[in-house]
Specification:
Helices cover about 45% and strands about 25% of the residues. The chain has about 900 residues and is of the alpha+beta class. The chain folds into five domains: about 55-275, PAS domain (Beta-Lactamase); about 335-440, PAS domain (Beta-Lactamase, 2-Layer Sandwich); about 450-575, 2-Layer Sandwich (Beta-Lactamase), CATH 3.30.450; about 595-705, PAS domain (Beta-Lactamase), CATH 3.30.450; about 715-880, 2-Layer Sandwich (Alpha-Beta Plaits), CATH 3.30.70.270. It has a six-stranded antiparallel sheet with strand order 3-2-1-6-5-4, sandwiched between helices. Strand 16 (about 415-425) and strand 17 form a beta hairpin. Helix 1 crosses helix 6, helix 20 crosses helix 21 and helix 21 (about 765-780) packs antiparallel against helix 22 (about 805-820). The longest helix has about 80 residues, at about 1-80. The radius of gyration is 52 Å and the shape is flat. The relative contact order is 0.03. Residues about 1-5 have low confidence and may be disordered. Keywords: Cell membrane, Membrane, Nucleotidyltransferase, Transferase, Transmembrane, Transmembrane helix. One of its GO terms (cellular component) is plasma membrane. This is Putative diguanylate cyclase YegE. It is found in: Cell membrane.
Length: about 900
Amino acid sequence: MLKSRINTSITAILVMAAAILVIILSFSHYTLLVKNTFTEDNQKNLASEAGQDALIVRNELQFAEASVRGLSKVMEAQYHSLGKEEIQSFLKKMDSSDPIISLSYVQADGTCYFQDGRILPIADRAYFKKVMGGSIVIAPVEDSRLDGKNMIVAAAPVRLSGKTVGAVQAIIPANKIDALLNVNGNEDFSETNIVLGNGTIISTTNPEKRNSNIFSNTNLTFEDSNGLNLIKSNMRGGKSGNSHYYTNKNEYFVFYMPLGIEDWYIFKTVSVSEIAFKTNKIMHYTIPLMAHLIVAMLLFILYMVLSDRKNRKMIRNKNDELRSTKVELETFIANLPGGAFRYNDSEDMEFQFVSDGLLKMFGYSREQFLEKYHNSFCNMIYGEDRVQTLNNLRQQFTQSKFAEVKYRIVTSEGEIRWFLNRVQIVTCEDGQRQFYAVVIDITESKQAHKKANDAMKQLLTLANSIPGGVAQYAYEDGKLKLVYASEGFYRLCGYTEEEYKSKEHEGIENVHPDDARFLSSMISRQIAEKRPIMAEFRMVQRDGKVIWVSLSGTRTVNQNQQVFYQCVFSDITTLKMTQEELEVEQERYQIAENLSDDIMFEYDIPADCMEFSPLFTALTGRHPNISGFLENILQNESICDKDLPEFKAYLNKLRMGNADSETEVRFITKSNEFIWHRIKAKIIYDSYGRPSKAVGKAYNIDKQKKEMQRLLDKSQRDPLTNLFNKTATQSQIEDHLAESAPVERHALMMLDIDNFKAINDQFGHMTGDEVIMEISHRLQKLFRTSDVVGRIGGDEFVVFLRDISADDLIEQKAKAMCEIFRTTHASKDLSYQISGSIGIALFPEDGKTYQELYPKADAALYKAKRRGKDCYEFYSEEDDFCD
């Protein structure tokens, strides 16, 4: 018998071993088939995914190209010229409709304006030069000047009047293109690159390879020894292809195809590890299945042995659970935030159980508690509450198994406390009823409730004392319904509380008919937007009197999600009347201001904000409200820049509280003319005595200033030639010399017409005057406006040549003046030859003041006379020793 059992066991073991061997061999063959299938599918999917990635990227880039082409056409159609303001205005309107793309505009000089206000130079970028040649360009850019990162730019030229004046460009961050490449494929095993024709990687799912060259990797070993050259050849011919290569770490399949943009290619690479990963994933499910089959056989054999042991263990666990539940229940009762007890259904309601928590609440030991109350629940209740409490319990038990009552008790220290008692009836198997009760001390809650009631009474008293009224509205079914109103509210409406409540009310009542629709619309919009209610309207009281009311309501939501508005109504009739009077006064002031040529202004000193009257805008075309006025005053374009420093000093005086001074500035009109104004202001101080505002007026004094300038010019001019007279000439030169640095070079030239007396004697003084006027006119044209040309005597002239960049310039001017003399004729007698002599003294070599230079130039003049006239001479020290 024993031998038979042994043979049976051996046979069973052999059968099980054979079955396991068959399962293992079948599993190995299955694994090989799965791997081959995955290899074939992977190579097909590689080409498909590369095509999908190429389509996504190409669509994005072509969209960017279409966007810039369309925007360039819009700019060419809308604008005849593109200045800074037109560019910024257009940029604000531009919307790429693609969150990836940001747009900008580049001027012909390479200045690029961005939508966020930044301005960068890009004239050195190769793609910019190409687009300015008239081509639409898509190009990669390394190290963007915006954020130092790589990007791809699509740019289209903008042509106005047949000339390329700039370009619209769309900027796509390279990492955004990288994100598009991540749409397909597994990042752990595959890699996608976009490369230029030379092999440079411009976008990749592997950031470490950005800007590297795919042909420079020396660790690649191709299955075909000519694999790398074949890839380069196909790229030059715009062909697609695939390859198989190895590195020192792994084995890879690669598929490449043209992107359809420039000479760009997309390379899709997948690691053979992905095939192994997929195969292993299948094995991950297959191996457990095989193991389950084996284990199932083993479990069937062991089932009978383990079944009995399992049953014994389950019984033991149940006993442990019962003991654990008992301990947990006792712990729970002991830690209740209150106490628990059980009493029977007898007349005295005797205690069957009392928790430690209840004893702690009373301050008694168990023996003291049971003795004090004679082991009766009835006696535990405070005497004044006992009858009512017991009646409430009996009444509630007639309707349910549960009851809840509140009553008072007395502690061991004689303190009266409030209890909340929840009781449940439990019927035992023998039919006896037991009452299980849980109590909580609610004394603090009762006290808080009393305080809340007292606070509510105070709040009602406060609401009734408000000069106006308070009301609460419930918002239900799209309508406001009055819930509560103070006495002040009823007084405001002209009703008593009983009169008002005798009618049905909905929404805000007693509104003036002219305001009803507007008020209803405004409140509906504010409620829909879940904002506070704010409105001003007219209310018709019971006696027909019309008053102005201000409504301010706060939105609240209770725990039941019901919406309420706590509203305050204030009588603002007096305020409104005052506002109307003020508006009339302001209108009168505005009319008076419009009839004047003077500009009113108000300068907010703490806020550094200037507000001009509308006449300022009419004059300058600028906005009348200017923030940061003093801080940015040197960049102000409405005031002549020469007047800005003095105006700034004047404002600083106002900020210090000094309003005694005044200043004069020139406003720049819309036609770029200068209009003189005299500025005067008075200061308003705040409650702390600090300057708060300066209110003043800019008086138009342009006519007076120009008349004074005309008179001044007339006093400084020679009446015959309109050149500076002797006094003005000397003053102008002295001013220039006083401001000159020693490193600067100037020249003082003395001119004299040779033998001028003979012209007067032969042709008459009228002809002499004509000769002087012609020479003066031609001298003015020869020199710059910064130079000084003056007539200091009958036929004597002075020229002050400023800021000489080269000494040759002095001689050129001297020769040109000699030529002016030679080509000037007396009357119509062309045979009469006129000439002139010139003496020259230099700053700073010959002198640093007019008093030093003038005699030396005069000495050089007479030196030229002695040489035979009709020439020019420079001063030298030898001239001082000549008579």
